[in-house]
Amino acid sequence: MQRALLAAVACLSLAACATAPTRYQPIGPSGVGYSELRIEPDRYRVTFQGGPGAPEAQVQDYALLRAADLALAGGYDWFRVVDRTIRQTGYGGSSIGLGIGGASFGHHSATGVGVSTGFPLSGGPVLQVNLEVLLGRGPEPPGADVYDAHGVRAAIGGRAV
Question: Would the pTM of this model clear 0.85, i.e. be above it?
């Protein structure tokens, strides 16, 4: 009995480790990575989806890095984020369950109570950041959501896995 329990725990531990790591890469079969859609010549929708449990800051940084790379590849100097959404899917928190049951077998009866708790085996929630960006050349206009493409590439690019 003890060996079976130990084997089950080992299998669950391995399953928990089999999640896709978050890397700066085009989206692939694992579902982790970036994609973009050109809306107009100087406007893109950029999406970055992290692996299970990836920190929100990392997923947002990688979306900004993809926007910077698109700007630089097109000869642009800066980009403005005109729309930003963050979506979470997957595991949303722990859970507790309670079950009560009873049975009667001729002259015998039984009653049972069970309590359980849940935990994620997937590593946590999956975050997806969607940015709509407008690319520009020349001096950077004022605004909180305006980014220097070279600066973003230098700051985040060195940390990208």
Answer: no
